[in-house]
Specification:
Shape: globular
Low-confidence stretches: none
Protein name: Transport and golgi organization 2 homolog
Radius of gyration: 17 Å
Strand content: 35-45%
InterPro entries: TANGO2
Pfam families: TANGO2 (PF05742)
CATH architecture: 4-Layer Sandwich
Largest sheet: 7 strands, antiparallel
CATH class: Alpha Beta
CATH superfamily: Penicillin V Acylase, Chain A
Distance between the termini: 35 Å
Mean pLDDT: 95
Number of strands: 14
Structural class: alpha+beta
Order of helices and strands: EEEEEEHHEEEEHHHHEEEE
Helix content: 10-25%
Amino acid sequence: MCILFLKFDPRPVSKNAYRLILAANRDEFYHRPSKAADFWDSSNEILSGLDMEEGKEGGTWLGISKKGKLAALTNYMQPKTDKNARGRGALVTNFLTADLDSFSYLKKVSSEGHLYNGFNLIAADLNTTKGDVICYYGNKGEPEPIFLNAGIYGLSNCLLDTPWKKLQYGKQLFTEVIKQSQDLANEDLVQELIKVLNNQDPQLPDPAIEDQGKEYVLPILNKYAAVCVRCPGYGTRTNTVLLIDAEGRVTFTERTMLNADINKWKTSTYQFKLQT
């Protein structure tokens, strides 16, 4: 399970404004093997964390390339999943390495959506000269991908902007930080967004989560109904904040749990400029 907040403004008026601000949590079993965010190889072209679970190695939940391709994935909460379905993390890595634009890629994915367990996928082409495009597709929603207009969005383990209480609350906290974004130093903005991602206040009751999750979610509902999930052996193990300013400068900060220990964390920051 995961949660993601996104502010998109493809043509900011002010030089101090951001074209894109993204704050996301990866929720997963603490012992599931993965690599922290880094560039994939010596080319320093694509940056992401990587899943190292046997049979799903190389998939990821969120990544960006210097060419301006960005993708992020959340699972759709289902009481029962198909163990033989395709690995969803490959949907992100395939886009980051493909020549297809975001809409064409999601159109292709939509034709194969039935081969996967439930997912949501955001794909973007961030181009300083031509302008930015962000698209969304969820295989439990509409059959076609959609283009996102400028605005603020929230995504968890249902469809885009589904009014789960934890999503609405997190989006409200995210929006309050965004309002201050032009007055905050880059590193202070990152820290404020990480605070949002680590809010553990449960937003209950929430009949929508209960209805979708059925008996699967009830034992963990009190923990799961918060932006930051903290259950025994499972929960939020990665915070990611991504900032892209008006000039195409990228700041990618990841705070990740070490050794499945909720008291041990490592923070890494990468900065680069999008290629034009």
